Amino acid sequence: MDANKTPGIPPARGIKSYVLRGGRVTAAQLRSYRNLAPEYLVPFAPEKTDFKKIFGNDRPLVVEIGFGMGAATAQIAAENPDRNYLGIEVFRAGIGRLLLEIEKRGLKNIRLVEHDAAGVLDCMIAPASVSAFHIFFPDPWPKKRHHKRRLIKRPFTDSLAQKLLPGGYIYMVTDWEEYGEWALGELSQTPGLSNPYGGFAPPRQWRPKTKFEEKGLAKNHIVRELFFIHHKLGEHNGFE
Predict the structure, then answer these.
(1) Mean pLDDT calculated for residue range 156-164
(2) Alpha carbon of 170 to those of 105, 151, 183, 230, 231: distances in Å?
(3) What is the DSSP string of 208-220?
(4) Percentage of the chain lying above the pLDDT 70 cut
(5) Which of 48, 180, 211, 215 is the most buried (most CB within 10 A)?
(6) Domain boundaries, the chain
(7) How far is Cα 58 from Cα 52, in angstroms, rounded to an integer?
């Protein structure tokens, strides 16, 4: 069986924003997956999930879509113990690596779902239940014929907005300038969202740089940040 695939989970509907490749899962990552998944991995379910019950509290829920190797996720969660973090990822190597970091730091406010983000959003997350969505460096799918695979486009952004609590936010970062322009347009056209900056947002000082980001900066890529708020309340949830 491919170590990057999850058995028994039906494929998500529509065009996927990712392609499962045969990435290498290290022995340490696989060991952490086997040992820690029962505690920290939330099984995909075709029904709304009570995350307050799963976390054992009613703290604000932050959802990160595509956390990669999870270094930034773990640091943000460690620095904000008053919030719950749900990470969604399809690559087992990244899940295993983040589980290692969770164990190392003794984090109790992170849970993970190994599944396509669209499926998790559609099936598991209730409307008006999420305080924030973090989407850091999603695949830009740079070729025009692949733009249909991009994650940040309507109607997916409509679904993100519907899951947000009033005053909640969507925070996206990309080092692909054209994708930043694309995402800015898609989010600007999404009902229920407002842009407090009118364009790209200034960098959030609380977001740690990732190795992926540093590689992009070394290639002179321009990092674009987007910050949209659910406009029923004109304030966000404290990350400034």
Answers:
(1) 98
(2) 26, 13, 11, 8, 12
(3) PPPHHHHHHHHTT
(4) 87
(5) 180
(6) 39-230
(7) 5
Cβ contacts of 168 within 8 Å, gap of 6 or more: 130, 131, 132, 133, 229, 230, 236, 237
Cis peptide before 155 (omega within 30 of 0): yes
Token digits of residue 115: 């599944």
Return all residues near 38 (Cβ < 8 A) that are at least 6 apart. none
Q: Read off the pLDDT of each residue in 167-182 and give the average, rounded to a whole number.
A: 96
Residue-wise pLDDT tens digits, 183-201: 999 999 999 999 999 999 9
Range list of H helices, 151-195: 156-163, 177-188
50, 139, 158, 175: the catalytic one is: 139
Amino acid letter at 73?
T
- pLDDT above 50 for 67: yes
d(CA 21, CA 9): 17
Those residues whose C-beta lies under 8 Å from the C-beta of residue 181, and which sit 6 or more positions away, are: 224
Q: Is the pTM of this model over 0.85?
A: yes
Phi, psi of 195 (to 5 degrees): -110, 110
Query: Yes or no: is domain 39-230 CATH 3.40.50.150?
Result: yes
